[in-house]
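hey so u asked for the seq, here:
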Amino acid sequence: MKNIETEYQSNIDNYSQDVMISQIELLLQYSNRFYNRQFITRKIANDDILVRLENLLSSYFNSEKIEELGLPSVQYISEQLHISPNYLSDMLRTITGQTTQQHIHNKLIEKAKEKLSTSDLSISEIAYHLGFEYPQSFNRLFKNKTKISPLGYRKSFN
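ran it, structure tokens below
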């Protein structure tokens, strides 16, 4: 910051702008370095958050909340874990390579596969049980994530 201020206060020449931009870029690089370092130095705390996230999603998907409230939002999850949505997504991306939304969708697909393979509910009923307002949205998400339709997945068990 001192270098930037000194350059700003000095007489302007052909290199002033380039020097200031370089100093600002360096400052931003240091900021990124310190921000991302927290995911390394807080490994135990972040692993604890990951366990709490898994437990939260499991209890959410195994309760009536999914039918009443629909899919949990990133905002809801982060509030329950008492961390910011951005921190949660950055932490998950560092640990698992997935965003919070992808994590929620993967948990949803697990639950859908369980219902498809162990129940006689129709695809529409399963979609409604999983919080979808429209079965087509469920079908589209399921096929996007698994490369097979829900009906095709169910038929693979028969």
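The longest helix spans residues 16-41. Residues 2-41 form one domain.
lmk if thats what u needed
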